[in-house]
Structures are given as structure tokens and as C-alpha cells.
Amino acid sequence: MEEKTVLEPRELAEKIVSILDAHKGGGIKLLHTADKTILADYFIICAGNSNTQTRGLADEVEYKLGLLGIQPSHTEGRESATWVLLDYTSVIVHVFNAETRRFYNLEKLWNEAEEVDISHLLTED
User: Fold this and answer.
1) What's the pLDDT score for residue 1?
2) 117-122 contacts, C-beta under 8 A, 24 or more apart
3) How crowded is residue 72: how many other Cβ atoms within 10 Å of its Cβ?
4) Mind listing the pLDDT tens digit for each residue in 45-88?
5) 111 against 27, higher pLDDT
6) What is the mean pLDDT of the chain?
7) E strand spans, 1-125
8) Which residues, other chains included, contact 89 with Cβ-Cβ below 8 Å and sequence gap of 6+?
9) Which residues of 16-55 are buried (b: 16+ CB within 10 A; e: fewer)?
10) What is the rounded average pLDDT of the residues 105-110?
11) Looking at the DSSP assignment, which residues form a beta bridge with residue 45?
């Protein structure tokens, strides 16, 4: 039986940001939402350049965390891959294609949430 790694919500969020960045996720944002909603402590918003990349980014997060014994409690949108949602209870990951991200504009919807500085987690292009 594989042992589950236990990460605090912030550690989990930063791990996911690093995975997305390593696979060229675009415009990654980490929002601290604990004070704004009971849905999750953190939202991660990211974009792929195509539906294929969007699906691939979500698959990579799920795969890498799965290696640590961490599984999402819920996933949505993998079929269309315009918006894939991975719910890790304390962290919700939103991977959009560019058009869908602009349309839903979650950053504006959650503009009262604190944006966490993730510059130390991102690689230079």
C-alpha cells in the first residue's frame, strides 16, 4: 500500500504551482481564499495554450501528486479540456485554455482574495 504524503494547504499549493510551471503552464496565480470562502484555502489558476496542453497540465498535477499518494476528491472538465478543475479539498486547481480563462475571469471574481507571491517558485523562460 502506498503511503500518503501529508502536506499543509500552503505546501500543497506551492507543489502544484511548481508542477504547473515545470510544464509551461501560463499565467499561474495562487490566491489565498481561506478568509473569503469555505470552498478551499487556496485557488490556483493557470492556462494552457491549447485544450491538449490544458488537459496535459491537469494530468501532470494529478500524476505527480498521485505518486505522493495524494488524490483529488473531485475532478471536472477533462473531456472538453477548456476548463479542468482538480479539487484537493484545501486547494482547488483551475486549468483553463486562454479563451475560457478570459471569459470566466476568476481573478476578477475573487479579487478580494490575497494573491500570494509565487515568484520564487517560477522558473525563468
Assistant:
1) 47
2) 118/14, 118/17, 118/28, 118/29, 118/30, 121/14, 121/17, 121/18, 121/21, 122/17, 122/21, 122/28
3) 19
4) 999 999 999 999 999 999 999 999 999 999 999 888 899 999 99
5) 27
6) 92
7) 26-32, 42-48, 74-76, 83-87, 91-97, 114-115
8) 40, 73
9) bbbbbbebebeebbbbbbbeeeeebbbbbbbbbeebebbb
10) 87
11) 29, 94
Residues across the chain: 125
The three grid cell numbers given for residue 47, joined into one nine-digit string? 492556462
- For the question of whether the overall pTM of this predicted structure is more than 0.90, the answer is yes
Cell, residue 14: 506551492
Return the residue matching grid coordinates 472538453: 80
Q: Is 123 exposed, middle or buried (0-12, 13-18, 19+ CB in 10 A)?
A: exposed
